[in-house]
Amino acid sequence: MGQIDQLFWGSVVLGICAIIHVGMLTFCIRVLDRLGALLKRRHRSLRVLVFVNTAFGVIVLSHTIQVWFWAWMLVRMEALNYWFDALYFALVTYTTVGYGDIVLPIDYRVFGAFAGVTGILCFGISTAFLVALIGRLMPRSLMGARD
Questions:
Q1: pTM, entire model
Q2: E-state strands within the chain
Q3: Which of 36, 77, 139, 147 has the fewest CB atoms within 10 Å, i.e. the most exposed one?
Q4: CATH class of 3-138
Q5: Residue 109: enclosing H or E segment and its boundaries?
C-alpha cells in the first residue's frame, strides 16, 4: 500500500471510529437522561454511582469496538495474518503503549499509526465527557460555591 493509500485509509478508519465514539456518547446521554428520570427521587449518591458507572461502561464499550474495528481492518488489508496479533497490535497502538514486539510491514506503518491518533483523540473526548459529567454531578458545596 502506498503512502497516499495509507493516509487515505487511515483517515477513513479514524473518521469511522470518531463517528462510532461520538455516536456512543450521544447514546450515553440519552440513557443518562432516562436514568435521571427514573432515579429522580433516589439518593444523590446512588444517582452519581449509576450515572458515572453507566458512562464509564459505554465509554469502555466504545473503545473496545474501535480496537476490534482496527484489528479487523489490519487483517482485511493483510497487514497482519492472525486475529490475535491484529487485536493485540491494535490495542497497544490505540492505547499508545506501543510495545513494539509486533511491527507492521513497511507498507502499512503509516496506516497503523492512525490507530494511535484515533486512540489519543477518542480518549481525550472520553476524558472531557467524564469530567463534564462529574462536574455536573458534583454537589455545589464541594465545588466551593457559597449559598
A1: 0.89
A2: none
A3: 147
A4: mainly alpha
A5: helix 109-137
